[in-house]
C-alpha cells in the first residue's frame, strides 16, 4: 500500500485555491477529487462564511470535506453539521460594530448566525460571491445586535486607511479578541484565540493523525498560524508581502491564477 506524504490538505480559498476570478477551476476540482479517492482529507480554511463555502463544495465530489470558516470561528462538515464554534461575546461584538471609523474610506461588515450584514451598499463585493450568490443585508449597526457573531470586519480602500482603526482596536480589544487581515484591505476581528490553526487542531483531534500530517496553503496574514503549525506550510506567490516576511522559512509556490496549489499537490502526491 502506498504511503501518503500527508493525511490532509488544508487550503485557504481567495488568493490560494480559487483562481483569479474567485472560482474553483476544473484542474483544481479534478485534483481534489483524486486526492479524496486516496483517502486524503480535504479541509478548506477561509475567512468566508460557511454558507458561501458550501456552494463551492457542491462543485467538488467529496463527501468528507471540512469547512473551517470565518478564520476559524466555525467548522462544519460537508453536510453542514457544526463541528466547532467560537463566537465573539455579544457585548464586545456590538461595541466593535459601533466604534467610530472613517466611513468615507472604510465599510463595516459582520458575519453572524443570521447572515452577512454591512453598513452601506458595496456592489463590487459581489464578484467574490458570484458562484454562491451569498449576499449582505444593509443595516444600521446602532440598531443591530451582537448575537452569534463569527467576526466583525472592516474593508478599506487601502491598508493605510485601516491602520489607524487597527491601532484603536488593538488598544481597546487586543486582550479579548483576535485581530488579523484576510487581505491587505480587510481587517478582521474574532473572539480571543480564534484562528484557522485552532479550528484545524479541533478538527483533527478526532482523527488518527495530527497537524504534522497536514499540508497547508495560504496567502494572507490570517494564514500565519495555520501555515506555521502544520507539517508543511506553503505560501502563494501572490501572497500578502507581510505573510512572506512573517514566514520566511516557508516555501513559496506559484500563483493562484495558475491553479498552483493543484499543480503542487499533483507533484507532491504523484498524481497523473
Automatic annotation (TrEMBL):
<dbReference type="InterPro" id="IPR006379">
    <property type="entry name" value="HAD-SF_hydro_IIB"/>
</dbReference>
<dbReference type="InterPro" id="IPR036412">
    <property type="entry name" value="HAD-like_sf"/>
</dbReference>
<dbReference type="Pfam" id="PF08282">
    <property type="entry name" value="Hydrolase_3"/>
</dbReference>
<protein>
    <submittedName>
        <fullName>HAD superfamily hydrolase</fullName>
        <ecNumber>3.6.1.-</ecNumber>
    </submittedName>
</protein>
<comment type="similarity">
    <text>Belongs to the HAD-like hydrolase superfamily. Cof family.</text>
</comment>
<dbReference type="InterPro" id="IPR000150">
    <property type="entry name" value="Cof"/>
</dbReference>
<dbReference type="InterPro" id="IPR023214">
    <property type="entry name" value="HAD_sf"/>
</dbReference>
<keyword id="KW-0479">Metal-binding</keyword>
<dbReference type="GO" id="GO:0016791">
    <property type="term" value="F:phosphatase activity"/>
</dbReference>
<keyword id="KW-0460">Magnesium</keyword>
<keyword id="KW-0378">Hydrolase</keyword>
<dbReference type="GO" id="GO:0000287">
    <property type="term" value="F:magnesium ion binding"/>
</dbReference>
Amino acid at each position: 500500500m502506498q504511503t501518503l506524504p500527508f493525511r490532509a490538505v488544508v487550503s485557504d480559498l481567495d488568493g490560494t485555491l480559487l483562481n483569479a476570478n474567485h472560482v474553483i477551476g476544473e484542474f483544481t476540482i479534478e485534483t481534489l477529487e483524486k486526492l479524496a479517492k486516496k483517502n486524503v482529507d480535504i479541509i478548506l480554511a477561509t475567512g468566508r462564511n460557511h454558507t458561501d463555502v458550501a456552494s463551492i463544495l457542491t462543485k467538488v465530489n467529496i463527501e468528507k470535506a471540512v469547512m473551517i470558516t470565518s478564520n476559524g470561528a466555525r467548522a462544519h462538515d460537508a453536510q453542514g453539521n457544526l463541528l466547532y464554534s467560537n463566537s465573539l461575546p455579544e457585548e464586545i461584538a456590538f461595541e466593535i460594530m459601533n466604534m467610530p471609523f472613517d466611513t468615507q474610506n472604510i465599510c463595516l461588515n459582520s458575519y453572524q448566525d443570521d447572515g452577512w450584514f454591512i453598513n452601506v451598499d458595496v456592489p463590487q463585493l459581489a464578484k467574490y460571491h458570484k458562484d454562491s450568490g451569498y449576499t449582505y443585508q444593509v443595516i444600521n449597526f446602532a440598531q443591530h445586535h451582537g448575537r452569534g457573531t463569527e467576526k466583525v470586519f472592516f474593508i478599506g480602500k487601502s491598508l493605510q486607511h485601516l491602520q489607524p482603526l487597527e491601532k484603536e482596536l488593538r488598544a481597546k480589544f487586543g486582550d479579548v479578541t483576535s485581530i488579523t487581515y484576510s487581505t491587505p484591505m480587510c481587517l478582521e476581528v474574532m473572539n480571543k484565540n480564534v484562528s484557522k490553526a485552532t479550528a484545524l487542531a479541533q478538527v483533527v483531534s478526532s482523527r488518527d493523525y495530527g497537524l504534522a500530517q497536514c499540508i497547508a496553503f495560504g496567502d494572507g496574514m490570517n494564514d500565519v498560524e495555520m501555515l506555521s503549525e502544520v507539517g508543511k506550510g506553503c505560501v502563494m506567490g501572490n501572497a500578502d508581502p507581510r505573510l512572506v516576511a512573517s514566514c520566511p522559512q516557508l516555501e513559496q509556490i506559484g500563483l493562484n491564477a495558475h491553479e498552483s496549489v493543484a499543480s503542487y499537490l499533483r507533484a507532491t502526491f504523484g498524481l497523473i
